[in-house]
Specification:
Its EC number is 6.3.5.-. With 535 residues, the chain is of the alpha+beta class. 40% of the residues lie in helices and 16% in strands. It folds into three domains: 26-225 and 289-297, no CATH class; 322-460, no CATH class; 471-531. Bound molecules: adenosine-5'-triphosphate (ATP) and magnesium ion (2 copies).
């Protein structure tokens, strides 16, 4: 099952991965997050490391390329963003933090050092709560403690071209503001790590300070992992969630194996940094080869002094955090299911999404209030939620229409009106779907720009429900459907009650012929009558 290689890596079967109680996993995370400020951390260049990938060195000022004589100028927007994050994590904001130089030489860091915060970081302490209900972890509730947050500049990017034996340097990313968030080694299983990353990612999106995307490198997670309190191994270069999870599984099994073979004293005696090559973790450097960074305060940057009052004002401006919103939505009067509350609250990736989370939540709350105002107790909130989450969002995706534009034609009040029409059976579910899609399609094509006249359209397309159906006509339609059935066993099965499900097939035929305007129940009753089914 296990194949050893020279660096004590092995190919393990990941399918049946499990943590063994006698080998305790301990993990701590370091997460680097790029801030989406307008400008870079210490220069006026536009902060756009990825939008112009085809234009290398396009967003790079003299300072970003380290021209001698240029000096850093601190971007206060980055300080504001870091304060928001620190407060949301319940950290203590350091009113006197400072920037330090971390020296090392690499082509994509032409300064010869990275400006970071080493001696006096931006914030310390804080915590994140994970629960079984909200985050899907195995334990009822755990707390992940935050060690610190530090602000630092990103490096440039090296692009290696093997065939040409050259490495190209792109400094678009150089000096993009980063926050490194370090946790205490509180994690003891994979689910905790996965849900923490998700929650943290959602938090930075919610605060509007970063895209939080792992795929673009806007968020980069390093995992520190030890087993049974041997030395920690730091795992770097993990580009997405599955790499993070697979690297942890692999590394855990590697360390367990080392311990089992009595080799911990030699192989896990000192901290080591390892990378991930897609199938195994590979050694990058050990302590002996680790660099002496010669940290020293950056003399060109003054202390970052914040007043307690400024911090208090940032705190007052923070949005309600997702956990609180979810709780609120699950209580009266909304009483949403956890799943629906999450859809309305948690940011999926912003890519290809036709709405921001805030736009969607606002839309929901306004439609909800409008339904409540119009119908009071009678309002069917579940129907409204379903129509927003399934029909509206589905249509927006299908049509590539942003919610912002749809709102001009179907404002929340109008949407609530549409759902009331369906609830009161003035139009059928199927007609409601047609109506909504029709309106949104016209909005996308630009032929509808004003709030839609629902009643006008219902009349024009004759979408109104047939509440009073001509009995004779109904009987005629049903008889036609029955005479087209080629399997006589089906009909006798319905009569005897042995094939109750087949009745649904017949009702479906009826609904199709009537384009959904006759209620299913009417068809059901008529078929049963015609077939003498008395069940
Ligand atoms: N015994 C341990 N097992 C697993 N993780 C640990 C252990 N001890 C510490 N850690 C984790 O190691 C990480 C240390 O990160 P920190 O940024 O402080 O130092 P670093 O990795 O040496 O510095 P750098 O930022 O240069 O990588 C933290 O996430 C911490 O929780
Ligand atoms: Mg580290
Ligand atoms: Mg670190």
């Amino acid at each position: 099952m296990l194949k050893f290689s020279r660096n004590y890596g092995f190919k393990a079967v990941k399918r049946d991965f499990q943590l063994l109680p006698e080998f305790k996993l301990k993990c701590g995370l370091e997460i680097h997050t790029q801030l989406n400020t307008r400008h870079k951390l210490f220069s006026y260049s536009t902060n756009d490391a990825f939008a112009s990938a085809n234009l290398p060195n396009h967003h790079a000022s003299f300072f970003d390329v380290s021209l001698p004589g240029t000096q850093p100028k601190l971007n206060l927007e980055a300080i504001l963003y870091a304060t928001r994050l620190g407060l949301a994590l319940k950290s203590n904001i350091n009113l006197n933090s400072q920037f330090d130089r971390k020296h090392y030489f690499y082509g994509d860091q032409p300064l010869g050092f990275q400006i970071t915060q080493h001696f006096s970081p931006f914030a310390r302490g804080g915590s994140v709560e994970l629960t079984k209900v909200l985050n899907g972890i195995d334990q009822e509730q755990i707390q992940i403690d935050i060690t610190q947050l530090q602000i630092e500049q990103d490096t440039g990017k090296s692009v290696y071209k093997d065939s040409e034996k050259v490495s190209l340097i792109d400094l678009n990313r150089s000096n993009v503001p980063l926050i490194e968030m370090v946790t205490e080694p509180c994690f003891s299983d994979l689910k905790q790590i996965r849900s923490f990353i998700k929650k943290y990612q959602n938090l930075v999106r919610h605060l509007g300070i970063s895209t939080g995307d792992l795929e673009t490198g806007a968020m980069r997670v390093d995992v520190n992992l030890s087993v049974n309190n041997h030395c920690r191994v730091e795992l770097k270069n993990l580009p997405n969630t599955s790499s993070i999870m697979n690297a942890i599984k692999f590394e855990y099994e590697r360390q367990v194996d080392i311990i089992r073979n009595g080799l911990a004293k030699t192989l896990l005696a000192e901290p080591e940094t390892r990378g991930w090559d897609g199938t195994s973790t590979v050694k990058l450097r050990s302590k002996e080869t680790s660099i002496d960074y010669r940290y020293m305060p950056d003399a060109e940057l003054p202390l970052v002094r914040l007043s307690a009052d400024a911090v208090a004002r940032v705190k007052a401006s923070l949005p309600v955090l997702p956990d609180e919103t979810i709780k609120l939505l699950m209580e009266k009067p909304y009483r949403l299911s956890l799943k629906d509350a999450k859809i309305l609250t948690l940011n999926a990736s912003g890519h290809g999404q036709q709405y921001t989370q805030k736009e969607l939540l606002d839309f929901y709350l306004q439609a909800f209030n409008s339904a409540l105002e119009n119908n009071g107790e009678k309002a069917n909130q579940r129907l409204l939620t379903n129509w927003i989450i399934h029909e509206l969002l589905g249509d927006l995706n299908r049509l590539g229409l942003p919610l912002r534009e749809a709102i001009a034609v179907v404002p929340p009040t109008k949407f609530a009106e549409l759902v009331t029409l369906i609830q009161e059976e003035k139009i059928s579910n199927a007609s409601g779907k047609l109506l909504l899609f029709h309106i949104l399609e016209q909005t996308r094509d630009g032929s509808l720009t004003q709030p839609a006249d629902l009643h006008g359209i219902i009349e024009k397309f004759d979408l109104g429900a047939r509440s009073v159906v001509d009995d004779e006509e109904l009987l005629k339609v049903c008889s036609e459907i029955l005479s087209s059935v080629t399997d006589p066993m089906m009909l006798s099965g319905i009569t005897s009650g042995k094939r109750k499900n087949s009745l649904k097939y017949l009702v479906g035929q009826g609904m199709r012929l009537s384009q959904g305007r006759v209620k299913a129940k009417l068809f059901e009753d008529t078929f049963k009558k015609l077939l003498n089914a008395n069940w």
